C-alpha cells in the first residue's frame, strides 16, 4: 500500500450532558480525525486525545502538530506500507501514542477495506456483540447521581462505573448500593488519590466493587502494588498502562489484577492486542476503556472488545450516551449489548452531511 495523502480534520461534538471527572468537566468533545488516502481506498482513525492535557500528557492541538510535522511526513516517505510497519517506522519519535494510534488505525482501516477484512476478523474477535457498561460522571448531588444511574439501568447497561475523587467516593458508592442492590459496579479515580489515602480507599472494600481503576498517579505503579496489598477490592490500571511492556511490569509487580485497554493510550490496535494476549497468558482479565469516541472510534473498539480475554463489560457505551447526533449511524444498545461491526475495515463510515456540520477545520498533507 502507498499513501497518497492524509487529511487532519477537527470536529466539535457537543455532549448530551457535561461529563465531570476528577480532572475537569467536558462540555464539547474536541476530536481530531485522521483520514488516509491510498490509490484506491481511504481509511479513518479517531484520535482520543482531549482538548487539554489533563487525563494524560497528550492533547488535540499537540497531536495535530506532531502528526503534521513528523509522523505523517515519515509515513508519506515510505514506498510500501502495511499497518504492522507503522510502529517501527515511527519508533524514533518518542511518545505521542494517541497521535500514532490514530494514524495507524487509519492505515489499518484502508488496508482492511482493500482486503475485504473486518477489524474483528483481523484482530481475532470471538463474538459478534459485546456487553456494554457506562461511565457515570461526578454529580452535584447524590439524588442527581441516583437519577442518572436509574436512567442507564433502564436503558439496559450491564455495568455501572462511578467516577470518584476525594470527597465523592464512599457516599455515592453507598447510595448506589442502597438503591440498586447487587448490580455490577466499579469506580474510576483518574489518579486523584495518593498513597496517604490508603485508609479512605480501603473503606470501599465494604461494597463488593468489581474493581477500583487508577486510584494513584500514572507513574506510581509501585504505589498501586502497595495499595493492592492493603485492599480487597481488585486494582485495575488505566493511565499507567502505556504499552505491553508497562502492562507486563505492572502485572509482575502485582500493581494490578485487571487491565483497562484503550488502543489510543497504548499507540494503536496492534499494541492493544499484544496487551490482551499478554494479560491472557498471565490470567489477568481485561476490558475496553472509552474516551468519549464518536462512531468512528467506537466501531474498532467494539471489534477489540470481542477478543476472548475481554471478560468484563467495557466503557463501550451507545452513541446516545454522549451525542445527540453521532457522525456515523448511531450505535444502539440491544439487550445491554452493542453489535461488532462486520463490514470491511472499521465497518462504518461518516455521514457526510453530519460530518460537515461538526467540522471546524481541515488540512491536507500530501506525499
Ligand atoms: C477513563 N473515560 O476511563 C476515561 C476518562 C476520560 C469513559 O470514563 C475528553 C476526552 C473527556 C477524553 C473524560 C471514561 C474525557 C476523556 C474522561 C477521557 O478514565
Ligand atoms: Mg479510567
> What are the distinct ligands in this entry?
N-acetyl naphthylalanine, magnesium ion
Mean pLDDT across the residues is 98
What sequence of helices (H) and strands (E) makes up the elements?
A: EEEHHHHEEHEHEHEHEHEHHEHEHE
Task: Tell me the major beta sheet.
Answer: 7 strands, parallel
Structural class from helices and strands? alpha/beta
* Low-pLDDT ranges: none
CATH class of the largest domain: Alpha Beta
Task: Specify the overall morphology.
Answer: globular
Radius of gyration: 20 Å
Q: What is the strand tally?
A: 13
- Strand content is 15-25%
User: Which fold name corresponds to the CATH topology of the largest domain?
Assistant: TIM Barrel
Measured between the Cα atoms of the first and last residue, the distance is: 13 Å
- What's the helical proportion of residues? 25-40%
Helical segment count = 13
What's the architecture of the largest domain in CATH terms? Alpha-Beta Barrel
Order the strands across the largest sheet as they lie in space: 5-6-7-8-9-10-11
> In CATH, what is the homologous superfamily of the largest domain?
Enolase-like C-terminal domain
